[in-house]
Amino acid sequence: MELSNLFFIIISAIFINNFVLVRFLGLCPYIGVSKKLDSALGMGMAVIFVMTMASVFTWLINHFFLSPDTGIFGYDLTFLRTIAFILSIAVLVQFVEMVIRKSAPELYKALGIYLPLITTNCAVLGVSILNITENYNFIEAIVNGISSGLGFTLVLLLMAGIRERLERAQVPKALQGMPIAFIVAGCMALAFLGFSGLKF
Amino acid sequence: MITSALIVLGGLGIIFGIGLAIASRIFHVDVDPKIEKIEECLPGANCGACGYAGCSQYAESIVKDNEEIDLCAPGGDEVIAKIAKIMGKKAGKKEPQIALIKCQSGGNDNTKFKYKNKGIKSCQAAMELDGGHNVCEYGCLGFNDCVDACPFYAIEVDENNMRYVDPEKCTGCGNCVDACPKDLIELIPISKKVNILCMSHDKGGVAKKSCGNETACIGCSICAKKCPVNAISMEDKLAVIDYDKCVVCGICAEACPTGAITDKIENRPQPIIKEEDCIGCTICAKKCPVEAIEGEVKKPHKIVEEKCIKCGICLDVCPKDAIVPKKE
Fold this sequence. Notes:
The complex is a heterodimer. Chain A is an all-alpha fold.
């Protein structure tokens, strides 16, 4: 029961409720960092990492402070959710950046500018809030975080691959650059909508 | 309830703040102030001529890995001098380099086409269609990937779709070298104005027939024999100049039967030595590649005009400016 539930969460987060193409969260890096496959991969890895960590921390904060049933104060503090989560995600990213910079300079170089960029990525906040509204337990929240990141990375890589080929294609002048990228994004979203029929 | 909200948010803020402050102490990484200073000197074009991903990476490797300080082509001597000051190193002068396009074909009227290529206007893409539409398989495809790759707009295209490198604008960054799928572009020292403008390794007849400009290197090796300093070698039916040896005398350009070698120096005056100024230091005689200067130490020297190839080296090396162009 438990395992099949996790499996459902994974499939759901990667395909059916893909963050970018179905929930329309994290569109900024989706358009901004999808010009090259290399940087898309770097960004994707950073997002997976931060999403997982954020899931852990925000779940704990919600469970022990904000929730009316399990919180230590006993009050319903859920209205603080957004600001508390943003605060903790920002601190988390900052902290992770410091640790990586000190302990793994190579990884720091590889992630580069993308790590601090993720602080302001709404997909990270989205996954934290969804974990709560879906009433996931701790394990489920972590799995949801990882697989949401995977789904994001998958779509980002697909988009980067397409856009690398688009560079060489003959695109009508009015559509060159961003417009054709948006059209491609729309087509991909339509394609991913096909997964929404999946039922378990 | 308000108090607990305050406590939660305020508490989180304080804990996070203190945590980050402690973490920044524990995980503090010293950044050498030299790196920032050097980065400020660099042009910031991020062209990649130095071989690093950008100016800041180059600055970092200068300080950390003891990288050479003269790798920045766009910055030139000025930047090298500034970096040298910061690093306390001596600024060696480095001769600037310039891109050389080694094919005289590729325009509208001087190219023989295998077929009409109406596809994507990109050399890279054209390459994938049977090696491109130029009959000569080594020749320029004329879709100007190099022009697009140049961050300094130094490659110009004329009305005939021939491309020329503007020596004023070219910084020798080498982006065009990477962009050309036929590997026709090379970086050469800016003073080397005699160049072989052909990359064809075909046999003489084939090379000549397939060249739309009829200026193919046919591999006759006349230039290699005529070169006074043995700077030209034959590599698989193609003459190649070793620019370390080349003295830019222009003899090869005159000898080449097909015009594959060009000499960009327009007039080469016959040098003569002013006897009253010559102190007999023998520098010119030592530097002359063809031993056309005779004379004993501390006595005025003489140039043997029959041997002289008018390369102009002696004009540059004479410390007393006693060697001047002969007035006709």
